[in-house]
Amino acid sequence: MPKISLSVAVYNLEDYLPKCIESILNQTFGDFELLLINDGSTDGSGKICDAYAAKDKRVKVIHQQNVGLSQVRNVALEHSTGDYIGFVDGDDWIAPTMLETLYTLCHEHDAPISMCPYLSVDEQGQPLNRPPDSKRIEMMSNKDALKRTYENKLTGYVLWNKLFKRSLFEGVNFPAKRDFQDASVLYQLLHKAKKVIYIENPLYFYLIRASGITKSQLASFSMKRLDVVPNYNETYAFMKVHHPELCDMITANFFTSLRTMLVDIMKENKVREHREAISHICQNISAIKKRLSRNTYVDKKHIRIAKLLSRFPRLGIFLYSFKLKLRS
Questions:
Q1: Looking at residues 246-251, what average pLDDT do you find?
Q2: Residue burial 151-175, b: 16+ Cβ < 10 Å; e: rest
Q3: According to the model, what pLDDT value does residue 248 have?
Q4: Average pLDDT of 265-270?
Q5: Which residues, at least 6 apart from 327, have a Cβ–Cβ distance to it below 8 Å?
Q6: Which of 234, 237, 232 is nearest to 257 (CA)?
Q7: Is residue 211's pLDDT more than 60?
Q8: Where does the record place the Glycosyltransferase 2-like domain (predicted)?
Q9: Rounded Cα–Cα distance for residues 177 and 96 (Å)
C-alpha cells in the first residue's frame, strides 16, 4: 500500500498534462500512487495518460465518460489506497519536494492535514504573485485553521496545496455537478482534523490560463458562479452547530460574492441577459439581510445596499449600476 495517493482530473489537457505528470513522477518522495482520471477527454489526453502508465507502475489510469470534476474527485477517493490523499490540477505542477515536505510534516507532528502556499504563474511560467517563503512551520488547531481560511489569511479554499489523512474523507463526498467543489468539503476536513500544520514555502504552481472554471469564470459572470449559494447554505448550517463564532464571517464572504457577481454583470452591460441570475442573487441577499444587519464584518454602506436590493431589486440595480458608471 502506498503512503500517498495523488489524483489528477484530466479533461482535454494534452498541452499541459505532461508537465504536470512529470512534476509528480520526479518527486523526491517516491512511495505514492498516481491516479489519472480521464473524464471523457476528446483530445489526446487519454493516450498521454496510458503512455505514462505503461512506463511507470505507480501510474493508474481510469477512463470514463464525462461527469465533471466533483464526480471525478469521488472516483479518485473510491480508488485511492494510500494513507494520505492529495490532489493536483492537470494544468498545474508541483515542486520536486512537495510530497516529501508535506508528508514529513504530517508524520513527524502527528497532524492529519499539512498545507503550503501556492505560486500563481502565467502561460510562460512567470510568477503573478509573491507568497511568503520563509520556510516557517506553524501548528494550529482546527478552529484557528478554519478562522484563518475564511479570513483569507491561509492557503485558500482549495485542496490541491494540501495533504490529508485518508480517514478524514470518511463520510465526506464532493457534491455532484457543482463548481467550487473544494470549498464545499474543505471546512468538513479541517473540522475533523483537530490539528493542522502549515509551512510557509510555496510548493504548488497554479497556472492562470484563458480557460477553466475558477481560472476564467471569476473574471466575468457565469451562471456556475451561483454554485456558491448551496455551498454557503451547507457551510452556514454546519458552522452554526460546530463553530458558531465563524457564522458572521462566512455570511460576510457570501455577501461579498453575491455583490461581486452583480458588479460583474453591470460592468459587462448584461443586465437584460442575466435577469434570472440577478433575481436569484437579490433573493439570496434578501434571505441574509437580517444576518447582515448585525454583522461587524460588513461595511454599513454595503448593508444599506443589501436592504435596497432586497426590497426594491430593480431600483437597487439601477442605482448601483449608475454609481458604478460614475466611478468609471
A1: 97
A2: eeebbbbbbbbbbbbbebbeeeebb
A3: 97
A4: 78
A5: none
A6: 232
A7: no
A8: 7-170
A9: 33
